[in-house]
């Protein structure tokens, strides 16, 4: 297998960024996000929610949808809002930064999205969002114009430093959102609530602080308009439901989500009144399944009290810890863990799981089909590679820089045009299932020039071969070998990070070898006129996700 390598990033400050060994990045990030203190936690406030009862997510008369979250949950709240701004009308984020800040990199997450050791690259994040919008990977960015956004950053927050939250406010301002930025409270890294058991300035479990202010009234007033005073004691129903039915593939644990989620439903909403839906997202070490944390966030977030008097359902999805260093503290996915390169846009596994819950509460979708699921197949390293030839296909040869740079696409400085070969063990698709969708996830490693613009409108296409183009090992003849189906999917321009291809065409789905190997060949439809290329997936395999029923 190709060894992983730390991504190269630019540091505009005089200090040298921390770039720990890749094997330690996850542990350091998760430790920093949770911001542990040695002091014992304060006594918890009285329970602010009724005991949960088993149930399901039934449809209600939902008039609008908003998101709110703290830390990793703040990042997820923003990801949901940007990815599905046609559905979600606004967002609130405590102690987090701009959309897609980490760009699939743990090093960037540590040094730019929590600390200030690296440039946040706000202009680049804006360009990525607009590009993804143009390609349909997120909803049209025009939906963000005029949306209310609430941003909170405490002056004592040393975990996600205030310039990072300032960049979130700036990010939304670039799209015309109505931003209210609260940055004068001397709070630590926490959700701010009158029910918080912690003093305002500390950073310690349960990361819910009382700062003598009603942040919920402030954020709800900005998102919804003037709100009624909260109920003294919540009188609605707290439903505990099974999250597995909303997880792509049917397993919440496989996405680092809990088996159980919660939804608070006031009586007025249960009786048919038009209600707002608030998706409230806990932070790291605040999930129900994390070391007995239970429903402390659900009880103390001070949203259920406002829900009763303001016709608002509150959905509390739950992330969960992994048994590995991928995500032991149960954070939401905002840097691309568990190999989910699509984590921030349409197709992101946690995003789609939460949106499935939203659709269920709105009554806009049917339950997942019985027996449906998906499998994500990594490409077979020993059978992957790239070939290069003159534009007319002459002089074909196997590329030799795979281990150093990744798979080449486009025209290199040697004048040769590169195509990439990828093998997948498609016998792993469950027998007896109908394949309904398949797509590739590809990550950019480096490049030069813009092969999509040379010539203008150039397309990066995938061909598929039932079995292998020649022998399954990469060979020179693979450059021009006939495909079973040509041009079955397209990958739009992407300047950094990962991207997801369009869905394979029906001919492409039919060509998948259900009993053995399927090969895909990536290449540009036209040879670039000059040097314009990219390398992809130097440190990890390309993946083929196949959905079935």
From TrEMBL:
<protein>
    <submittedName>
        <fullName>PHB depolymerase family esterase</fullName>
    </submittedName>
</protein>
<keyword id="KW-0378">Hydrolase</keyword>
<dbReference type="InterPro" id="IPR029058">
    <property type="entry name" value="AB_hydrolase_fold"/>
</dbReference>
<feature type="signal peptide">
    <location>
        <begin position="1"/>
        <end position="39"/>
    </location>
</feature>
<feature type="region of interest" description="Disordered">
    <location>
        <begin position="1"/>
        <end position="20"/>
    </location>
</feature>
<feature type="compositionally biased region" description="Basic residues">
    <location>
        <begin position="1"/>
        <end position="18"/>
    </location>
</feature>
<dbReference type="InterPro" id="IPR050955">
    <property type="entry name" value="Plant_Biomass_Hydrol_Est"/>
</dbReference>
<keyword id="KW-0732">Signal</keyword>
